[in-house]
Structures are given as C-alpha cells and as structure tokens.
C-alpha cells in the first residue's frame, strides 16, 4: 500500500535567512560599486559620498560577520545593520536632493543613466527594505529595530550637519574638464 503525501505534511521552507542574505548581497554590491566608482572610473568622493561608503561598508561587515557567528540570531544582525542602512539611505536621499535642486552637480554613476547619489539611494533603499522585511518576518527585536532606525536618523542628521561646506566656484569650470566628482554648481552672478 502506498501512502499519498498531503501538502500539509511537507515542511515549509525556512525563509528566515532570506532577507538578510538579500541585504548582504546588496551591501556587497554597494561596496563593490563604490570601489568601482573610485578605482575604475577614477571619481573623487565628496564628504557625502564618503559617509555613504562608510555606512555601506558597515552594513556589509555586520551582515558578513553574522554568517560566521552561528550563535547570533539573524534578527539581532538585522537590528545591528539597520542603523547604518537608514543613515546611509538618508544621506543618499539628501545628496540626491542637492543634485536635483542644482546645488551640487554629481557625476554619472556606473549605469550611465543615473548620477552616483541616485544609484546609492536605490541601493540603500533596497537594503533598508530587506532589513525591515526581515525584522517583521522574524518578529524578534522589533522594538530594538525601531530604536536602530531612530539611531540611523540621528547618525544621518549629525553627518549632514557636520559635513564641511564646499566653496562655491568663483569662475565657471573649464569646459574641457570632465566632471570627476561632486562639486558645487556654478551660478553666474549678474
């Protein structure tokens, strides 16, 4: 006599690691992308770019080390990674706003379609979304997760407030010089 397996007899796949693995993948992509901008495309990072890079590397380090710490729950890793992810997303959003409002002019990113801060904003938004999804999927440390999000907002605000102001250009930039980093936009005074 053969037994027929019922669908409810099969164990559901354990997806509790899925969100953090996606987050680690995008954090690693973000780190590689920022290195590509500097080392291959030879772009110079402005202070806002450097903050974003540092926060992306922080998230990647937290999640990568989490792979090798078997006693640490992934929900705890998520909480630890949320603060720098939110801070980086906020700084990338501010940086994108400054470019959009023509305060800064920023070079094209890796895609050649978006400027570098826009690409960073997309990467951080996906990263933060994966971490928040993991936080609610696991339903552990949710209050600590909200605390980490608030801490990320504090990090973002203090970094933006503490960013040194770039001097405005007194003369137009040379037309033959390619944009090799973020800079203040030249506005002719009349």
Provide a descriptive summary of the structure in words:
There is one protein chain. The protein is an all-alpha fold and 190 residues long. Helix content is 61%, strand content 2%. The chain is built from 5 helices and 2 strands. It has a two-stranded antiparallel ribbon with strand order 1-2. Helix 1 (18-40) packs antiparallel against helix 4 (116-138), helix 3 packs antiparallel against helix 4 (116-138) and helix 3 (74-100) packs parallel to helix 5 (142-162).
% residues in beta strands: under 5%
Structural domain tally: 1
Arrangement of strands in the largest sheet: 1-2
Elements, N to C (H/E): HHHEHHE
- On the 0 to 100 scale, the average pLDDT is 88
Terminal Cα separation, in Å? 93 Å
CATH class: Mainly Alpha
The CATH architecture category equals Up-down Bundle
Structural class: mainly alpha
- Main sheet overview: 2 strands, antiparallel
Rg from alpha-carbon coordinates? 21 Å
Helix content: 55-70%
CATH fold-level topology: Bromodomain-like
Number of helices: 5
Low-confidence stretches: none
Morphology call:
elongated
* Secondary structure tally: strands: 2
Key terms:
about 190 residues; Bromodomain-like; 5 helices; 2 strands; elongated
Explain briefly what this protein structure is.
The protein has 190 residues and is mainly alpha-helical.
Question: Secondary-structure blueprint of this entry?
Answer:
Layout: H1 18-40, H2 47-67, H3 74-100, E1 104-105, H4 116-138, H5 142-162, E2 183-184
Antiparallel strand pairs: 1-2
Helix pairs in contact: 1-2, 1-4, 2-3, 3-4, 3-5
